Task: inverse folding
């Protein structure tokens, strides 16, 4: 399927690894020029070098902490003409209400919840002037099925789901599409860390947990990236204000 993304420019946050890296690679394969963002410049440079060795696109590195609200303004000021914004930065810790103190809660939300909102606000202004643009928020299935053990992430993701639906329901008036993607258990370093801590000292506990997932495995970052790449294209031109889940139905299992 031809996606007609060649020559467009995309911003991808949290692009140094995992889903963000896979999204950057997927968009580059379709001919998108990239602005990739994360806190660690060295990791971003490796991603840039890998992408430019395979694809004839430009890749600009932005090493910055998007938990600092001022950096959203700086980033968008550096690439105001971007056609696509993919919000992906942020890793909210697991833990119950009594275990996550206010400082850690605010730190996590500053990066993911307010980080997404701030970048949307800054980018939306430019897209609205052009009457064109796509914003994709990669959120997380925890917002669909809240649990007390992941209370910070559940509440944050649910907030971003509401934000995405509300903004995307009106954005068509400005020629903009806003869509959310909720990944479930995806094979990343973060998944291994989270499930490994749950498995405890049992050396086979982690693999048993992963094999209990639908289809007997976690999802792949590339499976999320393929969806994001499609949603960024005009092939998805009538999709806005909705959330698409990528978890093989896990959120609705008994």
Result:
């Amino acid at each position: 399927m031809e996606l007609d993304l060649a020559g467009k420019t995309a911003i991808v946050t949290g692009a140094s690894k995992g889903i963000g890296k896979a999204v950057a690679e997927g968009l580059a394969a379709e001919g998108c020029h990239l602005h990739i963002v994360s806190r660690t410049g060295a990791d971003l440079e490796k991603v840039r070098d890998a992408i430019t060795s395979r694809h004839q696109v430009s890749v600009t590195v932005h090493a910055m902490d998007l938990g600092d609200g001022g950096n959203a303004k700086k980033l968008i000021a550096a690439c105001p003409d971007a056609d696509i914004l993919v919000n992906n930065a942020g890793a909210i810790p697991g833990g119950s209400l009594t275990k996550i103190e206010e400082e850690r809660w605010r730190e996590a939300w500053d990066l993911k919840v307010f980080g997404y909102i701030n970048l949307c606000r800054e980018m939306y202004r430019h897209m609205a002037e052009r009457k064109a643009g796509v914003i994709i928020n990669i959120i997380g299935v925890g917002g669909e099925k809240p649990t007390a053990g992941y209370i910070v992430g559940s509440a944050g993701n649910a907030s971003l789901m509401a934000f995405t639906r509300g903004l995307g329901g009106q954005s068509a008036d400005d020629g903009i599409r806003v869509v959310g993607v909720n990944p479930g258990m995806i094979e990343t370093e973060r998944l291994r860390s989270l499930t490994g801590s749950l498995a405890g000292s049992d050396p086979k506990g982690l693999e048993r947990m992963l094999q209990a997932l639908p289809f007997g495995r976690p999802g792949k970052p590339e499976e999320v990236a393929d969806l994001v790449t499609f949603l960024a294209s005009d092939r998805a031109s009538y999709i806005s204000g909705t959330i698409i889940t990528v978890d093989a139905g896990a959120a609705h299992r008994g």
